[in-house]
Amino acid sequence: MAHGEMSRRENRQVAVAAATLGPWRTAAGVGAVVGATDLAIDLIDGDWSSSMLAGPAGWGLFFFFLVGAVGGRLRRESGDRRLDRWANDHPWQAALPAAGGMLVLNTLVQLFVGDEGLFGALLLSLLPAAMVLTVAGVVGSVKRARGKG
User: Where are any strands of DSSP class E within the chain?
Assistant: First the structure.
């Protein structure tokens, strides 16, 4: 599948399908452990408030999307060679669904659970989403370069 052969809509659909290749069960476990650990630290700190769940939820989401996206790029074969090939040829596009999911879900968490307004929640979510995109994109690019070299 070459990039020029598909429409924008088809590229988006393939990117979302490629995002499903990640180890999402493992990612959920890692995210839950990180979030629970951060919550335990916050509870020990004694700074209790209704918004104290926003930080641990944000950390849990970050590690969930990071492990899922990067794990999908590091996996040898998923079973669907066409999706693997597309994701290897388009590492940055393959990382976009995870980064977008991180941005949207963390914004909602910060907005509804935290003390942030819409603009503050969006700004607070941009950095972790950009980090997920950057790390997953770089890992995919390195994998592509090593595979062709």
Answer: none
Could you give the CA distance from residue 78 to residue 83 in angstroms, rounded to a whole number? 8
The sign of the CA dihedral 59, 65, 70, 72 is positive
CA neighbours closer than 13 Å in the CB half-sphere of residue 73? 32
Digit-coded pLDDT (tens) for 110-134: 999 998 899 999 999 999 999 999 9
Is residue 46 helix, strand or coil?
Answer: coil
Two tokens at 133? 């995109």
Residue pLDDT, tens place only, 24-67: 999 999 999 999 999 999 889 877 777 889 999 999 999 999 99
Q: From 112, 140, 135, select the one nearest 104 (Cα to Cα).
A: 112
User: N- to C-terminal Cα distance for the chain?
Assistant: 21
